[in-house]
Amino acid sequence: MEKLKALFMKYKEPILYIIFGGLTTLVNWGSFWLLFEIFHIDYLVATALAWLLSVAFAYITNRIWVFESKADTAKAVALEILAFFAFRLLSGGMDMGLMYVGVDLLHINELLMKLLSNVVVVIANYIFSKLFIFRKKK
Q1: Domain spans of the chain?
Q2: Most exposed among 5, 18, 21, 57, judged by the fewest C-beta atoms under 10 Å?
Q3: Going by C-beta distance under 8 Å and a sequence separation of 6 or more, which residues neighbour residue 92?
Q4: Can you tell me the distance from the alpha carbon of 57 to that of 103, in angstroms, rounded to the nearest whole number?
């Protein structure tokens, strides 16, 4: 058990990112499914709304549990939120572009394409978060 605990502590950040990234993907995919399949909202509009919900969820979980942000002033938190949403806008654009190419140009099923797109987006978001948003100060 101690070896498992030591292994977890060594890789805590990527493990938690994978867990919360998976949950964020579920929020995104589930929101998209609900909006597209149940409410019959256009797939690009549903993608944008699902993105907004998942980004809010991701910021909270990343700040608290994954990267354990030390930003403690209003200015520092505001800058962190701004950076987080700016990079998520970039990955949201990637998501929209992948959905357009996959659905409209390649004729891939909307739900399958959403899942594939989210894999790419989660990887990009980890890189953005690790290198730019929640980087540890020296």
Answers
A1: 14-133
A2: 5
A3: 48, 51, 55, 121
A4: 26
Per-residue tens of pLDDT for the chain, all 138 residues: 899 999 999 999 999 999 998 899 899 999 999 999 999 999 999 988 998 899 999 999 999 999 999 999 999 999 999 999 999 999 989 999 999 999 999 999 999 999 999 889 888 989 999 999 998 876
CA-CA distance, 97 to 25, in Å (whole number)? 17
Q: Which two tokens stand for residue 124?
A: 């990009």
Q: What are the tokens at 65?
A: 């549990």
Instruction: Compute the distance between CA of residue 123 and CA of residue 130 in angstroms, rounded to an integer.
Output: 11
Token look-up 């919360």 returns 20
